[in-house]
Design brief:
Layout (H helix, E strand, L loop, with lengths): L17 H9 L3 E3 L9 E3 L2 H14 L8 E8 L2 E8 L1 H10 L3 E4 L3 E3 L5 E2 L4 H4 L5 E8 L8 E6 H4 L10 H23 L1 H4 L25 H7 L3 H13 L5 H25 L35
Antiparallel strand pairs: 1-2, 3-4, 5-8, 6-7, 6-8, 8-9
Length: 307
């Protein structure tokens, strides 16, 4: 019986066997040029990228051949830029292995009328939802204080350079948005395991839909870091969308800054709700701000497992 194919032990390509090279390519670490002078040529990711990917696979225990995690190369300004992405199944695997995962509620979507609904139907609710929401629970947390992930359509919907929705978002927009919300909730519930990891649904996944290169000279990353309120961050995000200057790097920075500002705002809310005995409420909820509050589902515990 042949051995199971695995990632190489070394990041040195010269030391790889033919089988290990095949695994590396299947993991997305080889970019194939589809146009231009290099059309048809294959380009291996730089050694630091390979090493980081191998380390992430080892740290998380995710399987690149099962598409739980993979590397994506995108051509930008003649240079291939690399990013590590995780499927939502990868997040679920990590949460399940933690032994602290207590399930999640079914996704809900925010309609144009401000109502949270358990199923989004275009014929009833409009062309697309305003946001999606998912609650994730941990066994060692107060069951009434889940980690809440809220993803808005304006922030996560993916468009082509022509301004049209990508095929996946046009066909399955509500589901894509729900997976983004689920990923946000998982990162809040398991920051030690998932910090800095993003799903393919949160980041653009098609090279031919790469963003227009921004030549305005604006340091968008610095503007994001300088934001001190959620409203300021939303204003900068709107300017980035208007300038069509978005990129995966800015998306990641924006998500990181959003998490910091949400945590700060939640701490302020918790401070105002200190109990009479001087004890603060459980801080595990991490509820998102600037999204209209809604009522939970019929029993608020759908798909949730008991301890």
């Amino acid at each position: 019986m042949s051995a199971v194919a695995t990632m190489p032990k070394s990041s040195d390509a010269a030391a790889w066997t033919a089988e290990e090279k095949a695994v590396v390519e299947a993991s997305g670490l080889v970019f194939k040029h589809s146009y231009g002078a290099k059309e048809g040529q294959k380009e291996l990711a730089p050694r630091p990228v390979v090493a980081r990917f191998m380390h992430t696979c080892q740290r998380t225990g995710l399987d690149p051949l099962a598409k739980q995690i993979y590397c994506i190369g995108r051509l930008s300004g003649g240079t291939v830029e690399w990013s590590i992405q995780t499927a939502i199944d990868g997040f679920r695997v990590i949460a399940e292995r933690s032994s602290k995962y207590a399930g999640q509620d079914a996704a809900e979507w925010l309609t144009q009328t401000g109502e949270w609904v358990p199923v989004f139907v275009k014929a009833l609710h409009g062309e697309h939802p305003l946001a999606a929401r998912v609650n994730v629970y941990r066994h060692d947390w107060n069951p009434d204080k889940p980690a809440v992930g809220v993803a808005t359509w304006d922030e996560y919907a993916q468009y082509t350079r022509k301004g049209d929705l990508t095929a996946m978002w046009k066909q399955r927009g509500p589901g894509q948005l729900a997976k983004c919300a689920e990923a946000l909730a998982f990162r809040k519930a398991f920051p030690q395991d998932l910090s800095g990891m993003y799903t393919d649904d949160e980041m653009s996944a098609r090279q031919d839909e790469a963003e227009v290169v921004d030549d305005s000279g604006t340091d968008w990353a610095a503007l994001i870091e300088a934001c001190e309120t959620l409203n300021e961050l939303e204003d900068v995000s709107a300017r980035i969308r208007e300038a069509r200057a978005g990129s995966d790097e800015l998306r990641v920075k924006r998500a990181a800054r959003l998490g910091v500002l949400q945590a700060q705002e939640q701490n302020m809310v918790d401070a105002e709700e200190v109990d009479d005995d001087g004890q603060q409420p459980d801080p595990a909820s991490g509820a998102d701000a600037n999204v209209p509050a809604g009522e939970p589902g019929t029993d608020g515990t759908e798909d949730r497992r008991s301890e």
